[in-house]
Amino acid sequence: MRVLVVEDEAKLAGLLRRGLEEEGHAVDLARSGDDALWRASAAEYDAVVLDVMLPGPDGFEVCRRLRERGVWTPVLMLTARDSVADRVAGLDAGADDYLAKPFSFAELLARLRALVRRGTAERPAVLEVGDLRLDPAARRVWRGNVEVSVSAKEFCVLETLMRRPGRVLSRHELIELAWDAAYEHRSNVVDVYVRYLREKIDRPFGRRSLETVRGVGYRLRGDL
Ligand code: CA
């Protein structure tokens, strides 16, 4: 998934970014309330990790304004320890969940997974497209009964496609959804990962589920 992390403390922001990236997620950082508002409105994220204490509009204000603009991306708020007032204010501002500092990274990941699952549309815990299955929590992939081993980034690209079965995604859209902002102009990276994935989920099984739609992009089909 693609996550926006909003935190002005460089050390914690860096830790969050590295940890999420190690799990194969794409991460963008915002260091102020204004930056967060701009980024969360301009790009599609699966979730936002939002600290309360920020320069400019604080986390509560950012969350409130996003909801007013019709941005319903799941928000996980980072609050001060033992501050009931912060938690209440965060939830009332439209946040979906909160985590008190200091937190365990494993819990942050689990809460993010739960938020993305609960999102606006119905999202089952295990994704299925035809006989291809992907478990975001266990980070495992199967074709039929055979488990397929994929790298962290391959997992991220596959998850992106599996959340939109049958839909043609352009290279640009795939970059937007599975890579961070720094990859904007490197569209060939998508072709490389599609090739890797085909070698794992299709070719060994005599399948052609990851289709090239000439001149447009790629589509994952359950019937091929
Ligand atoms: Ca902060």
Describe this structure in words.
The two termini are 25 Å apart. The chain is α/β, with parallel strands linked by helices and 224 residues long. The mean pLDDT is 90. Strands 2-1-3-4-5 form a five-stranded parallel sheet, with helices on both faces. A four-stranded antiparallel sheet has the order 6-7-8-9, covered by helices on one side. It has a three-stranded antiparallel sheet with strand order 10-12-11. The protein has eight helices and twelve strands. The chain binds calcium ion (CA). The site of calcium ion (CA) has 6 residues, from loops.
* Order of helix and strand elements from N to C terminus: EHEHEHEHEHEEEEHEHHEE
Described by strand count, sense and barrel closure, the largest sheet is:
5 strands, parallel
List the total number of helices. Answer: 8
User: Which ions and ligands are bound to the chains?
Assistant: calcium ion
CATH class of the largest domain: Alpha Beta
CATH superfamily membership of the largest domain, which one? Response regulator
Say what the CATH topology of the largest domain is: Rossmann fold
Rg is: 18 Å
The overall pLDDT average reads: 90
Low-confidence runs: none
Strand neighbour order, sheet with most strands: 2-1-3-4-5
CATH architecture tag of the largest domain: 3-Layer(aba) Sandwich
How many runs of DSSP E, i.e. beta strands? 12
Question: What's the overall geometry?
Answer: elongated
Would you tell me the structural class of the helices and strands?
alpha/beta
- How widely separated are the two ends? 25 Å
Q: Total domains, how many? A: 2
Percent strand equals 15-25%
Assign a percent range to the helix content. 40-55%
